[in-house]
Specification:
The protein is an alpha+beta fold. Helices cover 62% and strands 11% of the residues. The strands form two sheets. Strands 2-3-4-5-6 form a five-stranded antiparallel beta sheet, with no helix packed on it. It is a multi-pass membrane protein.
Length: 662
């Protein structure tokens, strides 16, 4: 019975969403406060209904209720509890439920924390959120119902895809969806502002916290997905430009541009039209990513759906929301004021350069991702656009922005002093080049141009520190005065410095691991030794093992340096009991910021075991940098100026709707 209640809760949520989709918009046009007040209440009710439905589905997984088709197809009674829970979103139907849950969660948060918003704007924002919720509720109920029953109920489930039975996949999708779906709030603010026909600096202040939150979560989600693929798939790579990876990376690029554009709009009342367009495009790219993953047009470990009906349905949602929003933008944008003017050499100019490069880079990734699909659809020819294309085009496009980032915070608003910024940064640039040269020398060389890449990473890190250094006046005023200045800086200043430094740490990791990594693929018998990165790995032999729902053969290695054994590492091949599917579990030994990566293959003809060994120097910097960037976003989000919100607009009070005389 409880399963049916979960299904009915979705139906009630759809009814609520339809009400919130219509009445508040009508109330906003009529000036009827009572109709507009339906929006926040309805948003909270929607969240409670969807949360209850999601909880019912989770209960079915935890209780191993195999009378539910979705549970039977994606779970097993022997699975550990954590994977039973993560199995809820380890399939198409459940992942769409997670998407919907986070969507209505953001709507409820807008209702709770948007009390300082003008009544009309809040009503329109929540109505647009409900339009999106209604579309996905209809999609789930008609094509992806997770509550379908089986009669008779099977005694056991088919098990979750073994690759997805990992703690990384328990964390990665929720973080990614918090970013993906979080941008829906920015989209709703943009559409609501276009409906009202009014966009100003206060609007940018209201949008920026939601952009920051979504961007920070998406940063964590992409980083977690990259690390999961690195250690779980056993191929030793951290990014392959897979179309599904690109589907999450494109909203991140557009969201980064939106974050900086909204800052210009808030501070200088400029770039209004561009900021609204970016808000629409960022969520549009999130919807595009959903279509690519859920439509079955891609074959990937990330993609679930293969039913063309679902793909067509999501494509219709995509066309309606993107097409409708862009049409509304085309109609209303010419009527919007352009905003303030500024000199090319200014902080605004630096942020415009940031936006230009990021959007072109995003367009490049979009082209490389969709071109093979479009070509196959139109001509039937299949081509592959892989890492060489993306590394060349994206790398060249991003080089200028890496050099420009430290200059932005040092330039004044409206009109900046480029020479003054250069004078402040020439010491930073010199230190960065020396640091890159030293690291290059210590790692025993490589391509000479790698020195410039390493120096660029250090330049970003040192530049972020220099920004805080000069703001505090360290070296120019007494130390206690400098400390008071530093501690008195707004949190957003520290958040910006952390985000920029995090980017530098990631760049440092990418350049270092690309330049200095080593690989050794060999066949080993027990007692034999392989050398790589200054370390020796002795193959000690195979040992059988048994897990909660799998059996495994584990290869054991002893790691030594200069003849002294100091650690051990193991890699295994697992066979899962229910599905009889095999996986390879890599063995990873972390040494500071670097890692030794071991993955076993098949038995060789001479009785040995094929072993792949990688030495990954400074690879942890890639994900540490992403973590620092996300922390920077959350630090900025905690700034009191964003938590308090923008000053209220000076608007005429909304009159209640006229009531008929009795």
């Amino acid at each position: 019975m409880i399963i049916e209640l979960g299904h009915y809760a979705l139906v009630l949520a759809l009814a609520t969403a339809l009400i919130v989709s219509i009445l508040p918009v009508v109330g906003a046009r009529r000036g009827d406060v009572s109709m507009m007040d339906i929006a926040p209440v309805g948003a909270i009710v929607m969240f409670l209904l969807v949360a209850f439905s999601f909880g019912v589905l989770t209960y079915a997984y935890v209780a191993s209720d195999f009378s539910v088709l979705n549970v039977w197809a994606n779970s097993h009674s022997l699975m550990p509890l954590i994977f039973k829970i993560s199995g809820v979103w380890g399939n198409h139907e459940g992942s769409m439920m997670l998407w919907l849950l986070i969507l209505v969660l953001f709507s409820a948060l807008v209702a709770l924390f948007g009390r300082n918003l003008p009544e009309v704007l809040r009503a329109n924002v929540l109505a647009v959120q409900s339009w999106i919720s209604s579309a996905f509720l209809v999609f789930i109920l008609l094509t992806s119902n997770p509550f379908i029953r089986l009669d008779p109920a099977p005694a056991e489930g088919k098990d979750l895809n073994p690759v997805l039975q990992d703690i990384g996949l328990a964390i990665h999708p929720p973080l990614l969806y918090l970013g993906y779906v979080g941008f829906s709030v920015c989209f709703s603010f943009a559409v609501a502002a276009l409906l009202e026909g009014r966009i100003d600096a206060a609007w940018a202040r209201w949008v920026r916290p939601w952009t920051l939150a979504a961007w920070s979560f998406l940063t964590l989600g992409i980083a977690m997905g990259s690390y999961w693929a690195y250690y779980e798939l056993g191929w030793g790579g951290w990014w392959f430009w897979d179309p599904v990876e690109n589907a999450s990376f494109m909203p991140w690029l557009a969201g980064t541009a939106l974050l900086h554009s909204a800052l210009v709009m808030e501070k200088r009342d400029a770039l209004k039209i561009w900021t609204v367009l970016l808000a629409i495009l960022t969520f549009s790219l999130s919807l595009l990513g959903t279509f690519l993953v859920r439509s079955g047009v891609l074959t990937s470990v990330h993609s679930f759906a293969s039913d063309p009906t679902r793909g067509i349905f999501i494509l219709c949602i995509l066309l309606i929301f993107i097409g409708g929003a862009l049409t509304l933008f085309a109609l209303r944008a010419p009527k919007l004021a352009a905003g303030g003017l500024f000199a090319p050499i200014s902080r605004e100019g630096a942020l415009v350069l940031n936006n230009l490069i990021l959007t072109v880079a995003c367009g490049t990734v979009l082209t490389g991702t969709l071109y093979p699909l479009a070509l196959e659809t139109l001509t039937g020819d299949k081509i592959s656009v892989g890492p060489p294309f993306f590394n060349m085009t994206f790398g060249l496009l991003m080089t200028p922005i890496l050099l420009a980032v430290p200059f932005g915070p040092l330039l004044a608003w409206k009109r900046g002093d480029l020479l003054g910024a250069l004078q402040r940064l020439y010491v930073v640039a010199g230190l960065a080049f020396i640091a890159g040269l030293v690291l290059f020398y210590v790692r025993h060389g490589g391509p000479v141009l790698a020195i410039l890449g390493l120096a660029a990473g250090f330049f970003l890190i040192f530049g972020a520190v220099a920004d805080l250094w000069y703001r505090a006046g360290i070296g120019k005023v007494a130390l206690n005065v400098a400390w008071r200045r530093l501690s008195g800086l707004p949190r957003s200043a520290f958040g910006t410095a952390l985000a920029h430094a995090g980017l530098g740490i990631t760049v440092l990791g990418i350049i270092a691991v690309t330049t200095f990594e080593g690989e050794n693929i060999t066949s080993m018998k027990p007692g034999e030794t392989a050398e790589l990165g200054g370390y020796s790995l002795r193959f000690d032999g195979m040992q059988p093992g048994v897990g909660p729902n799998f059996t495994e053969d584990r290869a054991h290695f002893t790691v030594s340096r200069s003849g002294v054994a100091f650690s051990e590492v193991s890699s295994s091949k697992r066979v899962f009991t229910a599905s009889r599917t095999g996986t390879t579990e890599a063995g990873i030994l972390t040494l500071g910021l670097s890692q030794l990566y071991v993955s076993i293959g098949d038995a060789s003809k001479d009785g040995g075991m094929v072993v792949r060994i990688w030495w990954k120097p400074f690879i942890l910097c890639i994900w540490m940098g992403a973590l620092v960037m996300a922390i920077g976003g959350f630090v900025s989000l905690s700034d009191r100026r964003l938590r308090v919100g923008a000053p209220s607009r000076k608007v005429k009070p909304v009159r209640p709707a006229m009531e008929p005389a009795e």
